[in-house]
């Protein structure tokens, strides 16, 4: 490695690529934004080339299996009229229950949890911060790279399901209801960002973050919706349930077992989720600024 290069997690960053970062007269905030912008492109490319990318790609192919099966059955058996009425409903169930409540959580948990901690455990952060790169630039750069790549992957998988369910002579759903797909894709991308911000912070704060993440996602985030009082306002799932136009989750599929909860206004949901993401990133940045990157502990 030359004197002008830094290596982080298999990612080579050259000082010449970001001259703004090393200028002493530039303010600390401007240096942070400049470093985050440069690192974003590098991390996005490294994410696509990583082995984890292939695992997530395979995981997002799993929801397509029942779609292909249903599509084959609809062709082999007569009943085009029934399929016209049920295709869109099947997609709503798949998007909200399959993707939002299950796939998004798994992707965020296994992809975002080591987002910052892998830099510290491998010792790569020590070389990265010698570039010099402000420590506060690492969380937004890695988080935006994760959010961008995972949202594109989820969108491709969701569109494949949408096209398979809606194309053909039975019901041209993919032409008539295309705005439904874009709305669901946007909300799934927002869910990936919210869960990813929280799980990546867990990777810095606690030991065994995967276990704590599973408990949060499938115990608290789900179970709090059946507890009395206003505990459902302390879950992420409540706000995505309020935003999804055609939500199908446990509340819809088992109405006798789960108490129906009031929905929040869309503006409230967006404000709460945006604040949650920002606070998680700021907390992660503060945590990294107090870490000794040489030994991986607090200074």
The SS-based structural class is: mainly alpha
The H-and-E topology, N to C, reads as EEHHHHHHHHHHHHHEE
How much of the polypeptide forms β-strand, as a percent range?
A: under 5%
Mean pLDDT: 75
| Total beta-strand segments | 4
Stretches where pLDDT is under 50 for at least 5 consecutive residues are: 1-26, 252-257, 294-299
- Order of neighbouring strands in the sheet with most strands: 1-2
Helix content percent band: 55-70%
Sheet with the most strands, sense and barrel status:
2 strands, antiparallel
Please, could you describe this protein's structure?
The protein has 299 residues and is mainly alpha-helical. Helices cover 67% and strands 4% of the residues. It has helices spanning 28-49, 51-61, 64-76, 80-112, 117-121, 124-128, 138-166, 173-176, 178-205, 209-223, 236-243, 250-253, 266-289; strands at 5-8, 11-14, 291-292, 297-298. A hairpin with a 4-residue loop joins strand 3 (291-292) and strand 4. The chain starts with a strand and ends with a strand. Residues 1-26, 252-257 and 294-299 have low confidence and may be disordered.
How would you concisely characterize the structure shown here?
The protein is mostly helical. The protein is about 65% helix and about 5% strand. The radius of gyration is 22 Å and the shape is globular.
What structural keywords apply?
single chain, two-stranded antiparallel sheet, 13 helices, mainly alpha, 299 residues, disordered C terminus
Write the layout of secondary structure elements.
Elements (H helix, E strand, L loop, with lengths): L4 E4 L2 E4 L13 H22 L1 H11 L2 H13 L3 H33 L4 H5 L2 H5 L9 H29 L6 H4 L1 H28 L3 H15 L12 H8 L6 H4 L12 H24 L1 E2 L4 E2 L1
Antiparallel strand pairs: 1-2, 3-4
């Amino acid at each position: 490695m030359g004197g002008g290069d830094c290596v982080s997690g298999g990612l080579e960053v050259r000082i010449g690529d970001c001259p703004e970062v090393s200028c002493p007269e530039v303010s600390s905030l401007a240096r942070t934004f400049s470093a985050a912008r440069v690192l974003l492109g590098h991390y996005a490319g490294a994410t696509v080339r990583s082995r984890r990318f292939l695992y997530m790609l395979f995981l997002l192919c799993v929801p397509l299996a029942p779609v292909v099966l249903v599509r084959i059955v609809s062709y082999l058996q007569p009943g085009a009229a029934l399929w016209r009425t049920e295709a869109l409903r099947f997609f709503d169930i798949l998007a909200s229950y399959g993707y939002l409540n299950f796939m998004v959580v798994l992707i965020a948990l296994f992809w975002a949890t080591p987002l910052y901690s892998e830099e510290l455990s491998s010792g790569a952060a020590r070389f990265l911060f010698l570039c010099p790169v402000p420590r506060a630039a690492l969380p937004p750069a890695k988080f935006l790279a994760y959010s961008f790549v995972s949202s594109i992957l989820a969108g491709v998988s969701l569109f494949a399901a949408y096209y398979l369910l809606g194309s053909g002579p039975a019901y041209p759903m993919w032409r008539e209801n295309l705005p439904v797909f874009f709305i669901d894709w946007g909300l799934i991308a927002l869910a990936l960002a919210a869960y990813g911000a929280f799980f990546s912070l867990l990777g810095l704060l606690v030991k065994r973050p995967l276990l704590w993440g599973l408990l949060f996602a499938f115990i608290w985030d789900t179970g709090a919706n059946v507890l009395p009082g206003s505990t459902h306002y302390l879950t992420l799932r409540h706000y995505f349930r309020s935003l999804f136009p055609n939500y199908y989750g446990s509340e819809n599929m088992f109405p006798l077992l789960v108490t129906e909860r009031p929905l929040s206004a869309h503006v409230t949901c967006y404000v709460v989720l945006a604040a949650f993401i920002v606070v998680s990133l700021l907390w992660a940045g503060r945590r990294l600024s107090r870490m000794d990157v040489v030994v991986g502990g607090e200074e």
